[in-house]
Amino acid sequence: MYRLSIILLSLVAVPAHASELAPTLGQTGSIIGIICLAMFVISYGFVMTEEFTGLRKSKPVIMASGFIWILAAYLAIQNGYGREEIRGRLMHDLMNYAELLLFLLVSMTYTNAMTERNVFEVLRSWLSKKHFSYRQLFWITGVIAFFLSSFANNMTTALLVGAVVMAFADKNAKSFVNLSFINIVVAANAGGAFSPFGDITTLMVWQSGHVAFVEFFRLFVPALLNFAVPALCMQFFVPNSLPPAKKQEEKVLLKTGAKRITAFFILTIVFAILGEHYLFIPPFMGMMVGLSFLMMLSYHFSVSNAFEGHYDIFNCVRDSEWDTLLFFFGVVFAVGGLQFIGYLDLMSHTLYIDMGPTKANVTLGILSSVIDNIPVMFSVLSMHPEMNVAQWQLITLTTGVGGSLLSVGSAAGVALMGQGKGFYTFMGHLKWMPVILLGYIVSIYVHFILNG
Asked: Is the keyword Transmembrane in the record (predicted)?
């Protein structure tokens, strides 16, 4: 058994020198290099049109990543690279993806478990029963989205809080729904920018070690202003009247175990933070320990007959956003292949040397309103530009909130366009882009005042 274990480890182990990545190919002008870049652009075109084509975003990106690496490996062999250099690059990308996958899988599983136990539905029901005016609901849902997205992803936050808004939707409340949805998108993206757990991009920056855990919270005031500035402008166009009374809906209660699951989620986050800070363990390990808590609680529920029927926590794992998780796979490996060819070196020189880090980071934030912030941030991390902490905080902020400029610029906006058909549209969001851009500019300006 011992020898068998050694043999298995030798088969899957990364070569000892794999951490020393082979130099890039420098073939950005070659026909194969241009074809690889074109495949990535075309695949991302399909991602941007997912709403209209119905083609899930993971499918074209995974296909593109596979073909990019096939061509990149062929190009590497033609330039004298061997097995170890090519595998070293691939295993480096695999390590980056594995850390991201495990962290997000635990987070999504906990979110699904709390959703299934009615944690978020109770909040929606409570708000809908209070006699708030449309304008009060505009602010309440925005503030909830801002803080909720600091530990839940922006798409989940947008859908949960959007359900509250849709509870008051009728033909006389179109402006309220449209403006509230814009507000939720801005709030969800801004709230995720100041917390390592709030967005994929902040998680990536934290795990890369460029910004320490506590240093993210220096972005709280800039992120808050990014949300508050457009909200203050839009509130005057939200009716201040009361929604029409609706028939009393059935009372929603927390299901058995809801409080314990929520408490374990908080404990899991604490484990991830303390493990990274004091023991230098990557955050995904703390999250996996937290997942074991949830698994053992699930087992307790099953053997104690706490629920009617069988309760299986793996149903929550199954219901995770696998399209999103596989999309990240495609992004990580496609960008990794393009980096191997040499495109990120070229991009890094153009942005961070010719333009300078501040202009580059602000520009990339605006670019993330068209291209998802995840490949933008992963590209920046792969470039390894020389920047101080304030500049790393800036790129975290700009890529996090830049997607609010357009309704298709973030997962939150795309999700709400589906949820609020007839109420929230691309053009309805675009009309308010100037005030959202004002919030974007104010947040950057305040960041430099506060953080240098």
From this structure: yes
